[in-house]
Each structure stands twice: as structure tokens, then as C-alpha cells.
Amino acid sequence: MAVNLKRSSGGGTAEVNVSRRRMLGWITGTGLVGSGVLSALSNFVFIKPRATYGQPQRFSIGKPDDFPAGTRITLEARRICVVREGSRLAAISTTCTHLGCIVGLSDTGFACPCHGSRFDTDGTVTGGPAPRALPWFKITLAPNGEIEVDKDIEVAPGSYLTL
Ligand code: FES
After folding, report:
1. What is the per-residue pLDDT across 102-118, written as a single tens digit (0 to 9) for each?
2. In angstroms, rounded to a whole number, what is the distance separating the alpha carbons of residues 31 and 35?
């Protein structure tokens, strides 16, 4: 069966004879191309990473004078404890190595409120279920005079930055 369409151009009218088969072919082709484009777009949206990577692991914590000698100051948002002994500084993790609770300061070092792990002032396990010591992180003095902590780099316990 043929479909007759009237087309006007240049002042005249011409009748175009389009077969049903050809019209169905156009509709099918347009549908296939459209679904292909939509599929490609949805695949792109699916593949594109939407992950958030949280806080940066390297950050500044302020000037050395913000940490007086003889203090241990916890920065809860950063999950570290800054230890200052004389002119030496260190950053110890406050994330419990058992199941990740935040440990608090205690008279003998650190204590975890979740399952009772205890650590000495160097982060060594002294009791409870924690499987290993609290990590120490790399700490440096930036050119602008601020202290930088890099939680991506663990250092050996007892590795202080000397000011
Ligand atoms: S999370 Fe600290 S002891 Fe379990």
C-alpha cells in the first residue's frame, strides 16, 4: 500500500508516493537510533564515577605554637592526636585498630570507648581486642610555617618532627 503525501515547493504542489514499507523503515530506523543514543547516554552516566573521596588525607593543622610543649591534643574531626614533647611533634591516629571507633585520651595513653581497648602514650596496645598499635603519621613543617600531616604515609612509632 502506498501513502500519498502532498509537498509544496516553489509555488507548485507535487505528490510524493511513499510506500508503507518505506515509512515503517524510517520509523524503525529513527527508533533504533534514538534508543541507541539513550542507551549510550545511560551507560556513560553509569560508568562515570560519582564517588566522594572524603576529606583530604594531607592537611594543615596550624602553627607549632598552637601545640604547647608537654601537650597531647586530639583533633577529633581529623582523627589524630598531636603530641608535643619539647621541640618535637608527632601525629598519632585516634582510630581504634579494632573496629574503628575514635579512641579518647586517658591517664595511661588512649582508651577506646567501644570495646575497651587500651593503648599507651605511643599507641602500643596494652589491653583489649585491638589487634595492632595506633599508627603514626608523617608530619612536616610547610614553607609557610604550618604543620602538615599526611595520613597516607605511616611512619614508625617514635618518629617525631624536630622543630
Ligand atoms: S573499636 Fe575499639 S575496642 Fe573495638
Report:
1. 999 999 999 999 999 99
2. 6
